[in-house]
Design a protein that fits this description.
alpha/beta, Rossmann fold, 3 domains, seven-stranded mixed β-sheet, five-stranded parallel β-sheet, about 20% strand, globular
Length: about 500
């Protein structure tokens, strides 16, 4: 059997990025693999070894990409990380940028980036491969057929003229997948491909992957933290457990194991500690602003150029209510939340009241943000600074990206409290970019809770979390909402992720 990827007792060169034992891993022709494991188990380290990002000290990775005629690993192996990135590495992106029209002009459109990817793939084919004109035409035809199929499946035509920075998380994932497939790789590695996608898009992606692995020579490797997303066309599973790569097993063997989410993981003692937390005079609403109406939208309309995001939207959230906000990808969920969180300047052109403040009547954005705890894909994307985790948590006290004022000792104690609640207390001094993506998400969740906010806004908070940590976060949310005068808005595309105390819901329809 052809071994497309073969690692035999491999040890990474860099001592900080080694797995606990030498790596043995094979991916054979005809297999479709899932790499699974808890947060911080070492899945990303294994992928970095497979892709050559972390070279091995001895016994280097062996590749056999036949029948592909491309020689370079880069041309044959593509890795989509789905890290909520807009593809810019200059560090200039900030998490309100998506809502500020004048700051996005320099970003390319989806059309431009897809055309660039197609041109690069064509040039690579023409320049590097010894193919006849007939063979080249055949490959070009296959790529065009695939492009048309993916475009129809994901309605890419609706995204072509959008700036890349304006894409929602789900739209961004569709774009990244389309761009990667245009190069027709021999091996495609996808990191948590289903997160951020609505129900229909998840099914579309599932169906597309099935077609790719059954009707083409593409080898697919998917990395999953949320193992109940396991596609049924997977043939083999490799678990990474405490930085040890376990032997490859069949999907049937995997399914015979117990992978159920625990009923509860937050201890009764910690639940009680959350409920008994003293209320802060600084971050809790004064009596005159304990309005029954926490949020009130009156015929709100949001447009960017010719595109309408929200149209004549009216709703009211009352004090103590717990809302689920849902809708398909690109329907305006994150835009709605950006208005509530005072990140979107179009709020001033609409009739909006928050905490009794009517927007545009003299209040500052900090008057609004003071009472809100917030996490979102945009926020995670904006944290590119390698600061100690506890400083990231403490930045939530002042709603900043980074820590500019030294917190008081009692405030640092609260930061440690929430890090302990989310199971990351041991990482208080670990810098943010050295944490796994799941651990980073837990740090940002602690940041959202740190000032005991009156309004908790959680935009897809469980991205990249394993079964245990997803249950932990649900426990924390449910417990926190038992405190008085706590209002919640949560976005997720998975109904089972919603806490049990949800009592209201709103569904946004995508505008034409």
């Amino acid at each position: 059997m052809q071994k497309i990827i073969d690692i035999n007792n491999g040890v990474a060169r860099h001592p900080l990025y080694r797995l606990a034992q030498p790596v043995n891993f094979t991916a054979c022709d005809g297999e479709c693999l899932a790499i699974v494991g808890n947060n911080a188990s070492g899945k990303s380290m294994l992928i970095d070894i497979i892709t050559g990002k972390h070279p091995l000290l001895m016994n280097p990775v062996k590749y056999d990409f036949a029948p592909s005629k491309a020689k370079m690993v880069y041309d044959n192996l593509k890795h989509i990380t789905f890290h909520d990135s807009y593809g810019t590495d200059d560090g200039t992106y900030y998490y309100q940028q998506r809502w500020n029209q004048h700051d996005i002009d320099d970003y390319p459109t989806v059309r431009e980036l897809l055309q660039q990817a197609e041109d690069n793939a064509r040039k690579s084919l023409d320049d590097e491969l010894a193919l006849t004109d007939e063979e080249k035409q055949k490959v070009h035809s296959q790529r065009e057929d695939l492009k048309q199929h993916v475009s129809r499946l994901f309605h890419i035509d609706l995204l072509l003229d959008k700036k890349i920075v304006m894409l929602s998380s789900g739209e961004l994932r569709k774009f990244q997948l389309t761009r990667a497939l245009l190069s027709c790789p021999r091996v495609l590695i996808m990191d948590n491909p289903f997160i951020g996608l609505d129900v229909n898009a998840r099914q579309q992606l599932h169906d597309l992957m099935r077609v790719l692995v059954t009707q083409t020579k593409l080898m697919l490797i998917i990395v999953l933290s949320k193992t109940d997303d396991m596609p049924d066309f997977i043939t083999h599973v490799v678990e990474v457990r405490e930085r040890v790569v376990m032997p490859k097993i069949t999907l049937q063997q995997w399914n015979q194991q117990d992978h159920l989410s625990p009923a509860h993981v937050l201890s009764p003692e910690k639940m009680q500690r959350i409920i008994n937390l003293p209320y802060s005079d600084e971050f809790n609403l004064p009596e005159e602003h304990l309005a029954d109406e926490v949020i009130k939208f009156n015929n709100v309309c949001i447009r960017y150029g010719e595109r309408t995001i929200l149209k004549d939207l009216s709703f009211t959230v009352h004090n103590g209510e717990h809302w689920a906000l849902s809708g398909e990808n690109g329907s305006g969920k994150s835009t709605l939340l950006s208005i509530v969180c005072a990140d979107n300047p179009q709020a001033y052109a609409n009739s909006i009241t928050l905490f009794g403040f009517k927007r545009g009547t003299g209040e500052s954005i900090w008057d609004i943000k003071r009472y809100i705890g917030y996490i979102s894909p945009e926020m995670h994307r904006a944290y590119l600074r390698d600061l100690p985790a506890i400083e990231i948590v403490a930045s939530g006290l002042r709603d900043s990206v980074g820590l500019y004022l030294k917190p008081k000792p009692e405030q640092m104690d609260i930061c440690r409290f929430w890090m302990d609640i989310f199971g990351i207390g041991q990482h208080d001094k670990t810098t943010f970019l050295k944490l796994s993506a799941g651990e980073q998400r837990l740090v940002l969740l602690a940041r959202a809770f740190v000032k005991d906010p009156a309004l908790l806004i959680l935009d897809e908070p469980l991205h990249g979390l394993d079964l245990y940590n997803r249950r932990l976060v649900k426990d924390v949310i449910e417990t926190f909402c038992k405190r008085k005068n706590k209002t919640l808005i949560m976005v997720t595309h998975y109904k089972e992720e919603l806490p049990n105390n949800i009592d209201h819901s709103i569904f946004l329809k995508k505008q034409n």
